[in-house]
Specification:
Elements: E1 18-20, H1 22-27, E2 33-38, H2 50-63, E3 68-74, H3 78-89, E4 93-100, H4 113-119, E5 124-129, H5 134-147, E6 152-154, H6 162-182, E7 188-193, H7 197-208, E8 215-219, H8 224-242, E9 254-256, H9 269-282, H10 291-304, E10 312-317, H11 328-332
Helix pairs in contact: 2-3, 2-6, 3-4, 6-7, 6-8, 7-8, 9-10
Bound molecules: pyridoxal-5'-phosphate.
Enzyme class: lyase
Cofactor: pyridoxal 5'-phosphate
Pfam family, one: PALP
Length: about 325
């Protein structure tokens, strides 16, 4: 895969670490060796996966002479926080459209990422009800900005178009270089599957390099079949963009929807246990919405014996810990 054919900003300082999670592996019975790729430690305020995608999105925006970015997300969106963060560094304005997926969940004085939007100086926040056409809403904001003489660029939710997903195909390449250097043979990679750029990027990257390492997505909102179709469609667009000759087989896209619970961003017992277990065994902070539910999936799959005895499994930690502070009651209850 050749990433030099695309405009790209350089936000990464180098590869994020791959670490063994010996304490957690032992706590889960010791049948599977768990490793973690620390994308929670990526640059950009408070870290997390969107920085890899934004390297490509901001480069495209600058190529198109934009001076302003418009993006969208949920009320505690890490993606909105990181877009605001890189907009600061690029001297661009940032405008947000937030979807109130859970009624009454937006609080202007809210903690977590909500507070960070403010601190990072976003120019405007517009809250729209659940189920709104977010692209249409962003276009509305964009049209208003154009009327004031600005040059806005729309970054889709989660930066999950083929441009943003390049960041995770590149992550797959980075991961493979590390695994080869470490002489570490992993049998599977577990990732959260949300707006799908992370999952699609890792799946396409691992496939394009003929690694034979399966990538398993843990859903955070949708049903299995719906999410798999979304990931598969984006994987197809990404493959074409990268010029990967062979189409990725449909059966290489696998999602689990058993860990979503009552819905997006709504706490589950498994998520609370996973967040507490990662903190108490590995000193790693997860988040309640994405990495906590993905880790709940990882833990359950290990306990159920989904991975054969002696397997090595790599968990992609996508970040999100600022959202913990918006959920204090959940963890203290
Ligand atoms: C956005 C996000 C994800 C999901 O990644 P997608 O590419 O949207 O599927 C996972 N974890 C965290 C912390 C995120 O912010």
């Amino acid at each position: 895969m050749n990433f030099t054919q695309f405009p790209r900003r350089k936000y990464l300082q180098g590869a994020t670490p791959i670490e063994p999670m010996e304490n957690l592996s032992k706590a889960l019975g010791g049948h599977v060796d768990l490793y973690v790729k620390r994308d929670d430690l990526l640059p950009g305020s408070a870290g997390g996966n969107k920085t890899r995608k934004l390297e490509f999105c901001f480069a495209d925006a600058l190529d198109k002479k934009a001076d302003t970015v418009v993006t969208c997300g949920a009320v505690q969106s890490n993606h909105c926080r990181l877009t605001a963060s890189w907009a600061v560094k690029e001297n661009m304005d940032c405008h947000l459209v937030l979807e109130e997926r859970v009624k009454g969940s937006y609080k202007p004085e809210g903690s977590g990422n909500n507070f960070l939007f403010e601190l990072l100086g976003v120019k405007s926040i517009r809250v729209v009800p659940a189920g709104s056409d977010m692209m249409a809403e962003m276009e509305k904001t964009s049209a208003e900005l154009k009327n004031t003489g600005k040059q806005p660029y729309i970054i889709p939710g989660g930066a999950s178009n083929a441009i943003g997903a390049l960041g995770y195909a590149s992550c797959a390449q980075e991961t493979m270089v590390q695994l080869n250097e470490m002489m570490l043979k992993v049998d599977g990679i577990v990732v959260p599957s949300g707006s799908a750029g992370t999952h699609a990027g890792m799946a396409v990257g691992m496939f394009a390099m003929n690694t034979n390492i399966p990538v398993f997505g843990i859903n955070v909102s949708r049903k299995k079949d719906v999410q798999e179709e979304i990931v598969y469609k984006l994987a197809g667009e990404l493959r074409a963009k990268l010029g990967v000759k062979t189409e990725i087989p449909r059966d290489q896209i696998t999602c689990f929807d058993e860990y979503v619970g009552p819905g997006y961003s709504l706490p589950t017992e498994d998520m609370i246990e996973a967040v507490k277990l990662f903190a108490s065994t590995e000193s790693i902070l997860l988040d309640p919405v994405y990495s906590g539910k993905a880790a709940a999936g990882l833990i359950d799959l290990v306990r159920k014996g989904f991975f054969p005895k002696g397997s090595r499994v790599l968990f992609l930690h996508t970040g999100g810990s600022p959202a913990l502070y918006a959920y204090l009651d959940t963890f203290r209850a």
